[in-house]
Structure formats: structure tokens, C-alpha cells
Design a protein that fits this description.
The chain has about 190 residues and is an alpha+beta fold. It is built from 4 helices and 9 strands, in the order E-H-E-E-E-E-E-H-E-H-H-E-E. It has a domain of about 110 residues. It has a 6-stranded antiparallel β-sheet with strand order 2-3-4-5-6-7. A 3-stranded antiparallel β-sheet has the order 1-9-8. A hairpin with a 2-residue loop joins strand 8 and strand 9. It is elongated, with a radius of gyration of 21 Å. About 25% of the residues are buried. This is DUF1439 domain-containing protein. It comes from Edaphobacter aggregans.
């Protein structure tokens, strides 16, 4: 049995995260309702509702941009239908990546594009500026540990992450780049 271990210190590592990876995380953590929707009002059985779906993540300058499709039936439920207006719009919010310990987070939410409908924007503003950035938060160490958990089956070596500290994150081209200190062991 061969054993390699970090002896009290971690080594610098650069981790690149794609927009698609952030998009999958966002879908799993927030857009996990029926048909990949997040309901801000009502639910799949409601006649009047507001929901967002189809999130797309991209990088623009130093920001992470999330584009969502929104659909709303706003009004009053009467006899099994929604009497009011139907809207379908697109909306964008951008955030700055922020790191704390093992956690990848986001701050400084800036709404880039709203629906243009005062009624729909009433629901979109709190969703885009608070809920969405909070739900994008992820523990990077947990994700890496999960990815390594089957290493013995696939590689013949049991790899494990012993420590992780994120020092900085920044958007660089088409990646979110993390500068981390990480410790690993191989058994």
C-alpha cells in the first residue's frame, strides 16, 4: 500500500470552472421544480403564477451573468383560469464571484435587464438580486470530495481531499478561476 499525504501544509492549485458547470449547479440548487422551473408565485397547479426557467450562465468582463426566461400569468383566479395578463420575458442579473474558506459565493448583484413590466418586475427584482445569488453558493471542498469518492474504483487509488482554502476567484476569459491551497492524500 502506497500512502502520500500532505504534511501540515497545502499546495497552491488553480481550479477553472466553466459557465456550464455553474449552470448545472444553479439548475440543481434552484431550478429543480417541475420542468426545471423556479416559481416566484404559485406552483405548477396554479392558474395565476410567475416562474423563471432556462438559466444560462456566461462571463462578461469580471462578472458572472445569469440569463433567465420568465413567464407569468398575473391576475385573479376565476373558475379555473387566470383573468389578467400573460407575459413572457427575458431577464439578466450579473454578480461578482466571492470566496470564503471552502465556499464559492457571489455578491454585488446587479440587474442588467428586467422585463419592462412593472407587475412582473415586482417579483423579479427580489428573485434576481437576492434569491438567485444566494442559491448559487456552493461548497467547493464538498464537490471535490464527491468527485474523488469513486477514485479507488476508477483509478485503483483512493484519493481524498484533506483541506481546501480558496484565496481568490476571478473571471478570466471563459472560466471562473479559483486560486486555492489544497491538501490531498492517496491510499
Amino acid at each position: 500500500m502506497v500512502m502520500f499525504a500532505a504534511l501540515g501544509r497545502a499546495s497552491a492549485v488553480e481550479v477553472k470552472i466553466s459557465a456550464k458547470a455553474l449552470e448545472r449547479t444553479l439548475k440543481a440548487q434552484l431550478f429543480n421544480g417541475p420542468e426545471g422551473r423556479y416559481y416566484m408565485r404559485g406552483d405548477v397547479n396554479s392558474t395565476c403564477y410567475v416562474y423563471a426557467d432556462s438559466p444560462k450562465v456566461s462571463f462578461v468582463q469580471d462578472r458572472v451573468v445569469v440569463h433567465v426566461h420568465t413567464k407569468a400569468k398575473l391576475g385573479t383566479a376565476m373558475h379555473g383560469t387566470c383573468v389578467g395578463i400573460s407575459l413572457t420575458r427575458e431577464a439578466d442579473v450579473s454578480v461578482i464571484p466571492d470566496a470564503e474558506g471552502e465556499t464559492i459565493g457571489f455578491r454585488d448583484a446587479r440587474i442588467e435587464e428586467l422585463s419592462g413590466s412593472k407587475e412582473l418586475d415586482y417579483f423579479l427584482v427580489p428573485f434576481l438580486s437576492r434569491k438567485l445569488p444566494q442559491q448559487m453558493k456552493v461548497n467547493a471542498a464538498d464537490l471535490m470530495r464527491k468527485a474523488l469518492s469513486r477514485s479507488e474504483e476508477t483509478m485503483g487509488y483512493a484519493l481524498s481531499l484533506t483541506s481546501l482554502k480558496i484565496h481568490s476567484m476571478l473571471v478570466l476569459g471563459q472560466s471562473l478561476v479559483l486560486d486555492v491551497d489544497a491538501g490531498m492524500s492517496v491510499d
